[in-house]
Amino acid sequence: MIRAGILGCGDVAGRHAAVMRALPEEIEIAALCDHTAATVQAFAQKHAPNAELFTDYRALLAEAELDLLVICLPPFAHADEVARAAANGIHILIEKPIALESEHAWRMVEAVEQAGVKSQVGFQFRFGAAVEAFTQLQHEGKTGKIVLMNARYFANHLHAAWWRDRAKSGGQVVEQAIHLFDLMAHFMGKPVTVYSRQANLLHGSVQGYTSEDTSATIVTFADGGIGVVTATNNAIPMRWIGDYRVVAERITADFATANVASFTHTDQVDIPVTRIDIERDSRREQLLDLLNAIKTGGETRTPIRAGAEVLDLVLAARRSAEEHREITLE
Known about the structure:
Elements: E1 2-7, H1 11-21, E2 27-33, H2 37-47, E3 52-54, H3 57-63, E4 68-71, H4 81-87, E5 91-94, H5 102-115, E6 119-121, H6 129-139, E7 146-154, H7 161-164, H8 166-169, H9 172-175, H10 178-188, E8 191-199, E9 214-221, E10 226-232, E11 241-248, E12 251-255, E13 260-265, E14 273-277, H11 282-296, H12 304-323, E15 327-328
Parallel strand pairs: 1-2, 1-4, 2-3, 4-5, 5-6, 7-10
Antiparallel strand pairs: 7-11, 8-9, 8-15, 9-10, 11-12, 12-13, 13-14
Helix pairs in contact: 4-5, 5-12, 10-12
């Protein structure tokens, strides 16, 4: 039985709590922490009435005797919780983006890897049934070289005040569309250059809204492949659309979601189509992957190093937009 603590008791934490509650023989929610006492108390009543409650993460890590820390903090709120948890031998599940500065992210990586604890970053798209099916075909050499990925993240919602503040969220590319950049790197390998244009076109009159609401980004990869990500917060109200298309040498894949896709086999005479449509909770699969790594000593699919690498990519996109030039990634 894994004793887990949740740090940050917002909406995303509730989704993780629901997954954990559905696995009572695997994991228990032993402790909760939020800087606001009323928030952690309300969260406990709904999700974990027997959990220990804390308002100081340092006390949580020192006193709760945890095996796993689930970190659901907004980007600006990260401090040294990862380093403290790792030093105490506590494994880590952390939501993206893991930080707002590259240096901070790589300090997290160093702390986790030196301590030898397991880590998983919340890039749950990688755990979708359709994404897994395509990845398997890729590993078997059945896709051929990937030459193009075209992805979009469309939303229309004001979100929380911190999200609208670019200094606290990093902006839409850094905080939301990062999922698509992660998938792009997962499929296409090492990014080498990025060029981005980002603007706030329709929310300039909204007080405190300094994030971009429209963006387009081009990424080139080491083997010559090209990725394009467009994002906006001006689309259909209360809908979050994250779909993508991948063109490879032998297959063109159209993903409606990480679980639903059509693979057109362009290397065959009759051009057959394989359809994947499987209802799967990717957060559950993500947690099970981490629990398995803890038990077996194996590797997770999205360790904290992946979180730092993709953060560097989206921060480079933001820098490109600010400087109006292509950025070469180190």
